[in-house]
Amino acid sequence: MVQISHTPDGRRLEVARQIDTEPAAAWRLLTTPERWPEWGPSVRTVDCADERISEGTTGRVRIPGGLWIPFEITTCREPTASRPGRWGWRVAKIPATGHRVESVGEDCRVVFEIPLAAAGYAPVCSRALDRIEELLVEN
C-alpha cells in the first residue's frame, strides 16, 4: 500500500505491508544494523558499533558503487501494544526514510516513510518490504 500521510517528520509518502509476524520480530530486524543489508536493497554493508540502534546511534552504510555514507539515528521508540515503534535517521546529514512497526492483531504492519522529494525511492522500499516479509515469515 502506498499513500501520503502526515508523520512526526511532516508529510511523507508511506509504503507499507502487513506481515504475518509479531511486531517485536519486525522491530528487531529493522533495528539491528548488521541485518540491514539482508533487506535493504540500497545497503551493502553497515559499519556501526551498536548491536541495536537507539536515538543518537551513528555509523556509516556502504551503498551500491562502494561509497560509504555516514548516518545518525535521530529518533527511536520501541513499539508497545498501544503505539507503533518508529525510528528515523539522517543519512549524510539529510533527513531520510522513517521506519515504523505497528500492531495489527497478532500480525504487524511495517511502514517506510519517504520524504516527498524522494518519492522515486518508493520501489526500493517496496522491494525492502518483500525481503522483510521473506525473512520474517520463513523463520
**How helical, in percent, are the residues?**
10-25%
Distance between the termini: 24 Å
CATH architecture: 2-Layer Sandwich
Strand content: 35-45%
* Poorly predicted segments: none
**Average pLDDT rating:** 95
Describe this structure in words.
- With 139 residues, the chain is an alpha+beta fold.
- It has one domain (2-137): 2-Layer Sandwich (Alpha-D-Glucose-1,6-Bisphosphate, Chain A, domain 4), CATH 3.30.530.20.
- The protein contains 3 helices and 9 strands.
- Strands 1, 2, 3, 4, 5, 6, 7, 8 and 9 form a 9-stranded antiparallel sheet that branches.
- The two termini are 24 Å apart.
- The model has no long low-confidence stretch (mean pLDDT 95).
What's the short version?
With 139 residues, the chain is of the alpha+beta class. The protein is built from 3 helices and 9 strands; from the N terminus they run ββααβββββββα.
Walk me through the topology.
Layout: E1 2-7, E2 10-19, H1 23-30, H2 36-39, E3 45-47, E4 58-62, E5 68-77, E6 85-91, E7 94-95, E8 98-104, E9 107-115, H3 122-137
Antiparallel strand pairs: 1-2, 2-9, 3-4, 4-5, 5-6, 6-7, 6-8, 8-9
Any key phrases for this structure?
single chain; 139 residues; alpha+beta; Alpha-D-Glucose-1,6-Bisphosphate, Chain A, domain 4; 9-stranded antiparallel β-sheet; 9 strands
